[in-house]
Write a structure and sequence with these properties.
about 260 residues; alpha/beta; 10 strands; globular; binds adenosine-5'-triphosphate
Length: about 260
């Protein structure tokens, strides 16, 4: 579905020094897969996601989505951001319908589709509110509904639940899982949470410290559907073993990074 080969990127830092963000990433994301991505801070996770979205250029390598080379943004891919990135002056309805408007869908149809999605993410009755009147969790529901409105093949999520409280995060995880179970989208989901990576993912990609490369890909053979019993999964032996393994790897990466820095 998504093929990434030899992806590299070097930025110029504020002091003029090169920042090697990605050091040759090769990755295949399967059709309808829920892929989660973990890695040390600054290893290029957001950079890679923006590249798949067509929002960031790269130096070398290639990305294709369903066989089409990525040259810029397109309606086949939607992104959900950590800070929601909603239009503050527009209502919930207009925010969700925005992408459909850009696609040229008529007002009656886009509003009907937007209302359906707003209900799906549990926000029926809030159509005429503006983002500033909503909690963080509610704003992220709008972000998800907006991303789904254009019926993308690929949903790109950059730490979407990082800015909400623990209970809301759990509810949003359950909602996202049930939406994905019903629609079978291809999802690439960045997170800082090992627990979240394992609960949601079919596979967890571990990126190494900068320059980011694939350090390991871990299969998550937990039963699906998972949306109805996240608590039960957390007590399963597989879940405990996989999260322990990921923690060991991440701890080693932090330690290597610390030693490299100490060595100058
Ligand atoms: N436009 C830019 N100009 C210069 N440097 C950049 C730019 N965008 C990203 N970087 C640098 O590239 C590296 C990778 O950034 P990126 O945001 O992709 O990492 P990340 O893994 O998503 O980080 P985090 O986990 O902290 O969100 C960082 O060192 C960052 O400072």
């Amino acid at each position: 579905m998504i093929e990434i080969t030899g992806l590299t990127k070097t930025f110029t830092g504020q002091d003029g020094a090169p920042v090697h963000a990605l050091g040759g990433v090769d990755l295949t994301v399967r059709e309808n897969e829920f892929l989660t991505v973990l890695g040390p801070s600054g290893c290029g996770k957001t950079t890679m996601l923006k590249m798949i979205a067509g929002l960031q250029t790269w130096d070398a390598g290639e990305i294709t989505v369903a066989g089409r080379p990525v040259r810029g943004p397109g309606p086949d891919r939607s992104m959900v951001f950590q800070n929601f990135a909603l239009l503050p002056w527009a209502t919930v309805l207009d925010n969700v319908a925005f992408g459909l408007k850009l696609k040229g869908v008529g007002k009656a149809e886009r509003n009907e589709r937007a209302r359906g999605l707003i209900a799906k993410v549990g926000l029926a009755g809030f159509e005429s509110k503006r983002p500033g009147e909503l909690s963080g969790g509610m704003q992220q529901r709008v972000g998800i509904a907006r991303a789904l409105a254009v019926e993308p093949e690929v949903l790109l999520m950059d730490e979407p639940f990082g800015a909400v409280d623990e209970q809301t995060r759990r509810l949003l995880q359950e909602e996202l899982l049930s939406i994905w179970e019903a629609n079978r989208l291809t999802v690439v989901f960045i997170t800082h949470s090992m627990e979240e990576a394992v609960l949601l993912g079919d596979r967890v990609v571990l990126l190494s410290a900068r320059p980011g490369r694939i350090a390991e890909i871990v299969d998550v053979p937990l039963d699906r559907p998972r949306s109805s019993d996240i608590g039960g999964l957390e007590r399963s032996r597989e879940y405990v073993e996989i999260t322990a393994h990921l923690w060991e790897r991440l701890r080693d990466m932090h330690e290597e990074h610390r030693l490299e820095r100490a060595a100058g």
